[in-house]
Amino acid sequence: MTERLADISARIDGIRQLGAVVNAMKGIAAARARVARAQLDAVDSYAATIAAAMASAIGPADAVTAQATAPQPGKPGLLVFCAEQGFAGAFSERVLDSIGPDHRPGADPDPDPGPGPRPDPDPPTLFLIGTRGLSIAAARGIVPLWSAAMPSHTPGIPKLADSITKAIYNALNAGNFDRLDVVFTRWVAGQPTVRRQKLFPIDLSHLPSPVAERPVMQLSLDRLMDRLNADYIHALVCAAALHAFAAENEARMEAMTAAGSQIGRELETFEATLRRARQEAITAEIIELGTGAVAAG
Question: How far is it, in rounded angstroms, from Cα 295 to Cα 290?
Fold first, then answer.
């Protein structure tokens, strides 16, 4: 009986230590998500400022032409943000599910598309962010052209965006894709929502209304627009990375909350078992003492 009590007590201590770890992970995830959400306002403001500058540089006349220009088809590409670490539920699986059933090199995304326009004959060129997501993608036979790890803290995201934009332009110059979308997760109303938005070429029709007259420019319009385009794409990549960073940590908070509830239930069960074992031990000792007293008499 003493050994059983010791085993149950040791199990309870182990569960309590696990609960402390889970609470610590939940607290860290909450802090990281909060910081990322706070920084999103600054990035969105920066992107809006660049968009306004682009609209002013284009001018009213060219803005009408830009709004009438439809996006041209071409080789597709995808920038996909998955999870960097584990304990985030099905975060990466949802993202990979959203980009299609099969993105292996040379695979037909739909062998029997049925009536209507046929989808892209080749899977998109993939740029994948997130170490955990990369391992899940490898298990599915998905091989990205380029991949990188998500930084553990938000100050590392601008540097990551630099690496991403460099890889994007290198692949663009190599002819790997002609148009690029970004896929990331946002946390909306307490639920993860996978979003896909156009990244390249920039849809000029979505720019704000330009001013009545173009400002005085020291650079040629083409050169200025090239620089603004690069800054705008960098800002959009930073925003998508921050959303993904916050959403991953929100998902980890949810997973840790569920784990904490399970730990609490297990702790209650073992504490009840310990109380019963102690009561049984006390009862056994009373019976033993009573039996000894009767035998002595």
Answer: 9
pLDDT at 296 (0 to 100): 61
Which residues are 79's β-sheet partners?
A: 127, 182
**Other C-beta atoms within 10 Å of 127: how many?**
24
Q: Which residues of 171-199 are buried (b: 16+ CB within 10 A; e: fewer)?
A: bbeeebbebbbbbbbbbeeeebebbeeeb
Beta strands in 16-113 (DSSP E): 76-81
3-state SS string over 48-66? Answer: HHHHHHHHHHHHHHHHHHH
Distance CA 286, CA 115 (A): 83
Strand ranges (DSSP E) for 55-154?
76-81, 125-129, 146-148
Taken in order of first residue, the domains within the chain and their CATH numbers are 20-257 (3.40.1380.10)
Q: Which residues of the chain have pLDDT under 70?
A: 1-3, 60-73, 101-122, 206, 210-214, 292-297
Q: CA nearest 129: which of 162, 160, 98? A: 160
Per-residue model confidence (pLDDT) at position 60: 65
| pLDDT on residue 121 | 55
**What's residue 79's pLDDT?**
96
pLDDT at residue 196, as a whole number: 93
Q: Give the whole-angstrom CA distance, residue 166 versus residue 285.
A: 76
Nearest residue to 161 via CA among 127, 137, 203, 138:
127
- Whole-number Cα distances in Å, 138 to 144, 184, 186: 9, 19, 24
φ/ψ (deg, to 5) at 114: 80, -165
Return the closest-CA partner of residue 139 out of 84, 98, 92: 92
C-beta of residue 200 within 8 angstroms of C-beta of residue 168: yes
User: Two tokens at 297?
Assistant: 């008499």
